[in-house]
Amino acid sequence: MKTSKYKVAIVGASGFTGSELTRLLAGHPDIEIAHITSESHAGKAFSELHPQFFQIVDLPLEKATVIDDAELDVIFLALPHGVSMDFVKRWKNKNAKIIDLSGDFRLSSPKIYESWYGKDHTFEEGFGSAVYGLPELKAEEVKESNLIANPGCYPTASILSVAPLFAADLIEEGSLIIDAKSGLTGAGIKASATTHFSNVNDNFKAYGVGVHRHTVEIEEQLSNLSGGKVRVQFTPHLIPADRGILVTAYAKPRQEMDSHKLVEIYQDFYRDKPFVRVRKNVPSIKDVRGSHYCDVFPFWDKRTERIISIAVIDNLLKGAASEAVHNMNLMLGLNEQSGLNQIPLRP
Amino acid sequence: MKTSKYKVAIVGASGFTGSELTRLLAGHPDIEIAHITSESHAGKAFSELHPQFFQIVDLPLEKATVIDDAELDVIFLALPHGVSMDFVKRWKNKNAKIIDLSGDFRLSSPKIYESWYGKDHTFEEGFGSAVYGLPELKAEEVKESNLIANPGCYPTASILSVAPLFAADLIEEGSLIIDAKSGLTGAGIKASATTHFSNVNDNFKAYGVGVHRHTVEIEEQLSNLSGGKVRVQFTPHLIPADRGILVTAYAKPRQEMDSHKLVEIYQDFYRDKPFVRVRKNVPSIKDVRGSHYCDVFPFWDKRTERIISIAVIDNLLKGAASEAVHNMNLMLGLNEQSGLNQIPLRP
Amino acid sequence: MKTSKYKVAIVGASGFTGSELTRLLAGHPDIEIAHITSESHAGKAFSELHPQFFQIVDLPLEKATVIDDAELDVIFLALPHGVSMDFVKRWKNKNAKIIDLSGDFRLSSPKIYESWYGKDHTFEEGFGSAVYGLPELKAEEVKESNLIANPGCYPTASILSVAPLFAADLIEEGSLIIDAKSGLTGAGIKASATTHFSNVNDNFKAYGVGVHRHTVEIEEQLSNLSGGKVRVQFTPHLIPADRGILVTAYAKPRQEMDSHKLVEIYQDFYRDKPFVRVRKNVPSIKDVRGSHYCDVFPFWDKRTERIISIAVIDNLLKGAASEAVHNMNLMLGLNEQSGLNQIPLRP
Amino acid sequence: MKTSKYKVAIVGASGFTGSELTRLLAGHPDIEIAHITSESHAGKAFSELHPQFFQIVDLPLEKATVIDDAELDVIFLALPHGVSMDFVKRWKNKNAKIIDLSGDFRLSSPKIYESWYGKDHTFEEGFGSAVYGLPELKAEEVKESNLIANPGCYPTASILSVAPLFAADLIEEGSLIIDAKSGLTGAGIKASATTHFSNVNDNFKAYGVGVHRHTVEIEEQLSNLSGGKVRVQFTPHLIPADRGILVTAYAKPRQEMDSHKLVEIYQDFYRDKPFVRVRKNVPSIKDVRGSHYCDVFPFWDKRTERIISIAVIDNLLKGAASEAVHNMNLMLGLNEQSGLNQIPLRP
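YS: structure for the whole thing
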């Protein structure tokens, strides 16, 4: 470990993910934030956009071109899907590790990307080098990588809810259903009918039924894990809350199961994973709010012979910003928990 | 129809259901509220408990014994499970129709009641005469009945979400999963850790996983409908909202299905049911808030060959008070829509 | 009263006010909705915009020009400030009463309008004929009027909170402070940073400090009432709730006061006003939600010798749509309570 | 500063304040939590009560008697008013500093305590030694003290909103009005009608009008500051949000004022106070959520010649737990910012 701090840049700081990345990195003992960029707000102070940072992080927002010649250890891309790929391409030869928080390099091929995202991919070579940065599954690959595809929020919770089962190839084909619920920040900072308070408050609805992009991301990762082809029924819903994802996963085991055995499988799988907590009672999203934890509650329903697994995360953290910092820690050879010791904020 | 108004009593008016019953009945053109009772608040005005009724319904709260000698057409029991049965027994020989909003007479036998509710039943004879008052399925039986077991809130939404499928016996055994979400009023007016604002607001969790009492209520009704034995995986969750239930039902069809056919099955089934609206897009709970409507959205997922059906109701109305009024209308030979024309309150 | 129904048009139905007007008028026994217009959504069904109306009000949205030749008894303008005046001008010679829900004709002169609204007024003649439609103060003028300036939401609650005091000229000059709080629907249906769920949920802030347009509207009406010049300190805040305004008004009496006298002043003033309820305890916004009631709680603080008056309304109803219907009832010679008997929806 | 960590105990850990104290102290670099007590839950793990701490703080809850013989540097009392005083008395001769988060020692005399709290005080001697621990006003006294009366949540925000004005004796007697709004956690963790979700959600109300205990606490501190007798009109309201207080203070200056001068007065007063941020725009409660910051926005309304000052804090932190930690830092001679560097959590 070097003695001076690592220099990082956050590209695209107007959204929630950029803001949360800044919060975590500003408090990280080994990191110095060298640049924060925003094309539309360049010139303003970061804290003008995000007033909670007033007198804490008042750095000026810069144009992304400032990165071209900057000496950096890590570049975080907190950009929309379809935009990120251009910057990965642009900076591929810089001597800096890139952590892309968009969906641009999460899938297995440009073709699959195009069929679910509905647009051409402009940097197909990236697929060869990108590592899917879910540290609980991929820590070793992440350590060796220079380009991380940071997982989606729903996939993070979904995969962690059932990874122990698929890693042991215990689940009957076609039986996996993930009924997912997310706080509104998952929809981003952009003002729209979807994000209008009156459409969300005291309300609840499903959306993207049968067609949500995270479906394929979950399927690919679980397929890799189990060795077989996994199909998932994935249905997202919108919770009238700011942060948090809860997934309720249903699956039929291939073989005999009981409560004790089920819990043991989860505990064994997550034994050395400091940020996954195997719970003995049903978790709620506030149990992990503001933190990097994923709480998982596996349940065996003897009556129906079905496994129900419930997982919760903070979608902006474990599902985005803190996952990115976790990946950075691994890539830089730091303690994986460095800067991620926030205790959940409840109530 | 007689020219003077029908006299009704609301027994147990301190909770949400009693309050909503009062709201509907106070505005019903054919009804006069003769008595409202509350054991713990007798002597106070009804509007002292529920200030929204100030200067609208200021009737005094009375002890339930006032009912013994009152001449009434209909008695509504808005009492907790386990308490209601004693009053049904007490008033069984009165010349008044009884609509019981508790769970005491919803199941098929005292034995099943005891195994899911964990207490002995004190009026087993009631099971013979009680009709499960879901008007969309049982209007004819309701009209002839003197004792209505008003359906539970989750069962109302759950059954209506898939009734057309089970009525046609289209669903593969064991494939039905109902992932249900309810606003907090479903937990009742009693103050507890569960209902504390800070445990609900900006939060989301599952509860009663694998053991919720409404499971068996749903199973029994769907079994009756299909003619076979139906098993359901039912998981309730708590939405940080006052009112509303949304259920996401998953089921595998026994035979070939397509989108067009699926919608047709629903539209045919609900053709003459004025309070079920078959929607072409995903409904949200606010679309029916404050009203007697149930909105249902059936969806065929070709990729997974699974039916997803989403239904929403206001749990205090279609799932309780307005359902009771609907049953009353049928029992008294009134227009079934009488007093139930509230347009949903959104936003 | 004529035997057929009165024909009305709602101009501008895409917002909350238009939607709530439609809800009330669709249920009004003496009214037929002849036209609903929306420039941006003409051609769609009204219920496509507002799904709660599906199968209830499916009328087609039309262009406003349809009004030109339509025979109508009443035209409601639910349009933004600055747009409404053009339509008042356009339809001034139609044989139809106009109720304008915008701020365009609420103030006493074009000059004052221009100084607070920052734009020129295009129909200055309107100021001569427009009546400020607060029925509790102006019922007689409203009955004779053909053009109603329907009051703002904050002014409705603010004025009603202290009208009995100013009508009796009891308040010390310059002592009136109104600290007002509104649910988010007051900001309208337009998507913006202001209405983004994450900026509102679990949050609270002031806005428009010292400069809000409703200040002058309150001042003018209270000045008319008292006969003197009234200055108010008005500060609005944003509640993380959909509907409801609560105002906390502070004022110093000119003369001796006590609790008994204060309550009597309020009760006398509002004796024959069916929609103002003088409460003996602190009201909350949910006590009037979904209704036309204004609940007022006057309090004498002996220690500080100050009057505190708290008033609550539903901003979309008493502060907009139901106020307009109330005005319509008066203008048409109907019972003033007709179609306005909704009991507040709580919880 | 000693090299080993300071040992602290948290007495009364079942509430929000105890939980937040634990969160802060568990992350404080110079502190070791030696004991956490709860009379009603002794024997359980702390994280059983507060599941967000699972695998982070699993310390056993103990009976308070464990403190009698424990060697401790600091004892935090997170107990209800009226209970705390007995423990201060019990441990007054221990060689440990006591920080009392209740209201038991905040006022100037037992007599005033008794008149506002309605109960006798059992440890009158405490009044002589207790220091009112508002670090921005009392840092020097705090450093020398062994018993801190940690300020109330409303008084913290209220006093900080106007302290610069009263310190300079600029305010006209009797003109101060503080219209305060608090999130629900201010009502504590106890389940009651007040804290029931359905009474809070989508709702807003005032309470304690004219009689709230924090009134006298504010008056006494501002009187000390200005040298004169200060009377405040204080009205609290309940926001449907978990955390946060916003106060809107109104005051008339004795002398000429302008915007520039006003801001300067605030900036000068808070120059070396790292946790008070003088803002140039209206703050919202989420701007400080989860942090020790108080944001203050002073505004001069030229039209009405009145000062409006808006301040926001997190009531559980700056208004309770982090204030206590701040006091501890001062008492132990640590850097006053130690352990208090949390950046606000928004959204």
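YS: worth flagging: The domain at 6-150+320-332 of chain D is CATH 3.40.50.720 (Rossmann fold).
IM: good catch. Also Chain D touches chain C at residues 174, 177, 179, 181, 183, 198-199, 201-207, 209-210, 231, 233, 235, 237, 239-244, 246, 248, 250, 282-286, 289, 299, 301, 303-304, 306, 308, 310, 347 (CB under 8 Å).
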